[in-house]
C-alpha cells in the first residue's frame, strides 16, 4: 500500500541507497531502522552519514545509546536495543526536534517516545548479501520524500 520496497544486492548498495535518502533529508528528520541483528541497520546508517558529508567512521552505538556526528548537519545515531527492559528517558525529544537528522536502530523499543511523523525502514535478509529494504513513511513529509526516491 503505502510501502516502498528496494532491493540491495550487497552492503555497498545499501550504503548507496541510504546516501540517496540522505540527500533529501532536512534538520529535524527522524528515521527508524528495524531488522534482525546483522540485517544492516548500522550499515545503512553509514550511508546516511556519507550522504551528510560525515567523514568519521560510524560504528554501532549499542553501549553508548547515542552518538553524534557533525556533517552538513548533525547526525544523531541511536541504538536503543539496550533499553529494551527500561523506561529510561534520555530526552529523545530534544534530538528529534533538534537541528540534525536522527537515526534510531530498534526504534520500536521506544515506540511511545517516537515523534508523530518519521520514516520507518525495515531491513530483511534475502540471502547472504541481499537485503530487502521496506520504507513505510509515517506522515506526509516522509510520503513526499519516498515519492521523490522511487
Ligand atoms: P545491524 O546494525 O542491523 O545489526 P550491521 O549493519 O551492523 O547490522 O551488519 C550488517 C552486516 O552485514 C555487515 O557486516 C555488512 O557488511 C553485511 N552485509 C552484507 N550484505 C549487506 C547488505 N546488502 N546490506 C547491508 N549489510 C550487508
Ligand atoms: Mg546495529
Automatic annotation (TrEMBL):
Residue ranges the record marks as coiled coil: none
Transmembrane segments: none
Alphabetical UniProt keywords: ATP-binding, Cytoplasm, Magnesium, Metal-binding, Nucleotide-binding, Transferase, tRNA processing
Major place of residence: cytoplasm
A GO biological process held by the record: tRNA threonylcarbamoyladenosine modification
Compartment annotation: Cytoplasm
InterPro entries registered for this protein in UniProt: P-loop_NTPase (IPR027417), T6A_TsaE (IPR003442)
MF terms (GO), sorted A to Z: ATP binding; metal ion binding; transferase activity
Annotated GO CC locations: cytoplasm
Family: Belongs to the TsaE family.
Protein name in the entry: tRNA threonylcarbamoyladenosine biosynthesis protein TsaE
Organism the protein comes from: Niallia alba
Lineage: Bacteria, Bacillati, Bacillota, Bacilli, Bacillales
Amino acid at each position: 500500500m503505502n510501502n516502498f520496497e528496494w532491493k540491495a544486492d550487497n552492503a555497498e548498495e545499501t550504503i548507496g541507497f541510504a546516501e540517496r535518502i540522505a540527500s533529501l533529508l532536512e534538520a529535524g528528520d527522524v528515521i527508524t531502522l528495524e531488522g534482525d541483528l546483522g540485517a544492516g541497520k548500522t550499515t545503512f546508517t553509514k550511508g546516511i552519514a556519507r550522504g551528510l558529508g560525515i567523514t568519521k567512521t560510524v560504528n554501532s552505538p549499542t553501549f553508548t545509546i547515542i552518538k553524534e556526528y557533525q556533517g552538513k548537519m548533525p547526525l544523531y545515531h541511536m541504538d536503543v536495543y539496550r533499553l529494551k527492559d527500561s523506561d529510561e528517558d534520555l530526552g529523545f525529544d530534544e534530538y528529534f526536534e533538534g537541528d540534525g537528522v536522527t537515526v534510531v536502530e530498534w526504534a520500536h523499543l521506544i515506540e511511545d517516545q517516537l515523534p508523530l511523523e518519521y520514516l520507518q525502514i525495515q531491513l530483511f535478509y534475502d540471502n547472504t548479501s541481499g537485503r530487502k529494504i521496506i520504507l513505510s513513511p509515517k506522515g506526509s513529509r516522509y510520503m513526499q520524500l519516498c515519492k521523490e526516491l522511487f
